[in-house]
Recover the amino acids of this structure.
DNA sequence: GGAACCCGATCGAGCGCTCGTTCAGGTTGA
DNA sequence: TCAACCTGAACGAGCGCTCGATCGGGTTCC
């Protein structure tokens, strides 16, 4: 199995690969829960060890530093995002509909994983250079995915987009508004957000006015 | 002078109000510089004291906790933003042009104050409930400002916006893409960003297609 | 079969250190 | 003289991480 760019191995004392996998899972669960609730710095390694039912020493047989736990958490989050995203949009031919589907799925994911997205934006600077690079790489593939849709739509004459990469970044970023500005969006439903953002973006980039989408 | 909502006083040992003001200024400068470079948690109070030429004890005569320094920094940032914003857009009658000006000025501010905006998004959760409330309040007035433009434009028949508040939040948020996704936007100029975002948003919310803006 | 040995996962007390905060004493100016 | 301000050594809580000890189970050898 080829490893993605974000998959630099974490040094471990323990040898058994299958066991490492299981333990890393436990550590992820505990890490995500605690980091989300208290933040990276306020969470102690001891707490994480306790939360996953391991001794501190044991925990440190599966990681080298506290930072590794954050990396582990990030990896799993992003992997799951990528998988869901691809599944929800593959096979759709019409760029406009595909973009709509991509937006909708991203917003649904971001809705279900609020804590994770928040963590991603707030604590990523706790990662070192190497960890950050991994995040960047994954993000770039994400953006590239949106960008491809934009390119296809532009070639088909449906979209009028001067800077596809820039716009892809913006669109993906905009989806995070639901998580990062949640406190100022109470009262709205996920459906309203999806509709509003989809309308804004599709109108914003359409070569002609996409009336059929508004009517439907 | 009436104090804004964010202006709950910080407890100090020192009495002289004018001196407090001056010292708080020094502390802000040092805090912004160091927090931006190293983050809140990695910056020590000692470093801040040194950077503003005060002894640690002296510093603690002007604040009660480290958190107070962050509050202080945030306050100043937001105050300056608000002032610039209002100045740049007041008096513009046409909603479309006013929105354009507001976007442009916000992006310019966010360009000049990258570190500050990043700090705002990354470290605000280090603040306690009270400090956060203050931030929220200021942000709401900001958003309200955009919302007003949207409302005026909608009444004038220029914009077609179903959820003005939601959209105002989105627009303001979108401006931060330039700071929060900077690493993925290298190579673009501020001017390109301004143009792309303005086009996206104005097209996105316009009742009719605003061709004149594109031609000009 | 079972004694002797080995391997590697587990454990948690505690080391070494950082960092926010305090306080007793010094300095200054009116 | 005394209030206001300044100073930095000292404090101690809390943290990440290490390391020697333990133990269950597999393997070897008689």
């Amino acid at each position: 199995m080829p490893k993605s760019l974000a998959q630099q191995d974490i040094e471990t004392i323990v040898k058994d690969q299958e066991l490492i996998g299981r333990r890393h899972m436990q550590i992820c669960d505990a890490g995500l829960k605690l980091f989300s609730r208290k933040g990276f710095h306020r969470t102690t390694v001891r707490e994480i060890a306790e939360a996953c039912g391991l001794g501190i020493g044991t925990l440190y047989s599966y990681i080298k530093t506290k930072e590794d736990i954050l990396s582990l958490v990030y990896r799993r989050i992003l992997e799951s995002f990528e998988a869901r995203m691809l599944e929800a949009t593959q096979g759709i031919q019409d760029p406009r509909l595909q973009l709509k589907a991509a937006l909708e799925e991203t917003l649904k994911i971001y809705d279900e994983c609020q804590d994770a997205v928040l963590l991603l934006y707030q604590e990523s600077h706790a990662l070192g250079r190497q960890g950050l690079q991994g995040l960047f790489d994954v993000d770039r593939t994400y953006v590239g995915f949106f960008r491809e849709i934009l390119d296809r739509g532009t070639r088909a004459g449906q979209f009028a987009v001067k800077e596809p990469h820039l716009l892809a970044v913006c669109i993906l970023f905009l989806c995070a508004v639901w998580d990062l500005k949640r406190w100022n969006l109470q009262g709205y439903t996920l459906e309203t957000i999806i509709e509003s953002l989809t309308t804004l973006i599709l109108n914003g980039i359409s070569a002609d006015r996409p009336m059929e989408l508004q009517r439907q």
About this structure: The radius of gyration of chain A is 20 Å. Residues 13-16, 19, 54-58, 61 of chain A lie near DNA strand C (CB under 10 Å from a C1'). Chain A has two domains: 9-64, 74-215.
